[in-house]
Amino acid sequence: MVTTPDDYADDSVGATALTLGVAKSGNIEVVSDQDYFKVDLVAGQRYLFEMTASGVGSLDTAHLSYSPNGWGSRP
Ligand SMILES: [Ca+2]
Ligand SMILES: [Ca+2]
């Protein structure tokens, strides 16, 4: 059996840093997968975050969540 390794950490401690304006792609390898990202923001500024899905099984139920420790996406 071949398993695909997880591409991003499942928790905020290991969150991957994002660069504003630069897209990041990843995979939800298993149903229970969560991929965490972090980004430095400036108070008072507006930001737009977009998440799209492709391939088998969409992220219809995916969501972005915010906490001071980072953003998370999960199915
Ligand atoms: Ca993943
Ligand atoms: Ca993960």
Tags for this model:
75 residues, mainly beta, 21% strand, binds calcium ion
Question: What secondary-structure arrangement, pairings included, does this model have?
Answer:
Elements: E1 16-17, E2 35-38, E3 63-67, E4 70-74
Parallel strand pairs: 1-2
Antiparallel strand pairs: 2-4, 3-4
Bound molecules: calcium ion (2 copies).
Detailed description of the structure:
It is a single chain. By secondary structure, the protein is mainly beta. It has a domain of 44 residues. The chain is built from no helices and 4 strands. The chain has a 4-stranded mixed beta sheet with strand order 1-2-4-3, with no helix packed on it. A hairpin with a 2-residue loop joins strand 3 and strand 4. The chain is globular and about 50 Å long. The chain starts with 15 loop residues before the first strand and ends with a strand. The model has no long low-confidence stretch (mean pLDDT 80). The structure holds calcium ion (2 copies). One calcium ion binds next to loops.
Total count of strands: 4
User: In one word, what is the shape?
Assistant: globular
Helical content, roughly?
A: under 10%
Average pLDDT figure? 80
Largest sheet: 4 strands, mixed
Multimerization state: single chain
N-to-C CA distance: 24 Å
Strands ordered across the widest β-sheet: 1-2-4-3
**What molecules are bound to this protein?**
calcium ion
> Beta-sheet strand percentage?
15-25%
Q: Structural class of the secondary structure composition?
A: mainly beta
Determine the number of helices (DSSP H or I, runs of at least 4 residues): 0
Query: Which blocks of ≥5 consecutive residues have pLDDT under 50?
Result: none
Order of helices and strands: EEEE
Radius of gyration using CA atoms only: 13 Å
